Amino acid sequence: MGSSAKSGEYNTKNINLRHIQLVTERPVEQFLLRLFLRDADMRSLCIVSPFISSMADCRFSLADLRRKIEQERICTYIITRQPEEEYQVEAITVLLGSPWIEVRYNPFVHAKVYVAMSRREADSFGLFGSGNLTAASFQRNIEVAMMLYGDGLGRTLLHELNYWANGQLRTLRESTLVQRITAERK
Hints:
By secondary structure, the protein is of the alpha+beta class.
């Protein structure tokens, strides 16, 4: 074993980390910032968050997100818990009625996952960590997450994350369909 291994240092020469990034400041806002400001042709969006609020006082509100989804015709899949609090009911009300948004309730969901898949794979990105899609996550909670970018090693991890959220979690028996996508897909 070399001296660097004894001292606790890691050899990262063969690991390309530019496609994976630790985000410690407002990670969910960073995801939405990338979604709103990048000019990429998004084909799908998957949001897994036990708690969702309208985020009316945030840089990006849920209503802004719905408008973007509808304007750009992005098939969007949302998995959350059934709303119990008034703020949750208000948020779901914003989402319901959009022909581009599928909503499913799963009482056991605790994961927080956000995946934006683009027609051009290198423009795809995702986030997984501690942040819910709520104003508290944006404004005061201390959150941490990993951002994945759709290139190199990040592409492989992003596909795995998308498969887990959109394929496995979405289709569990416990993930009850509330609203399906009714618009024609891109």
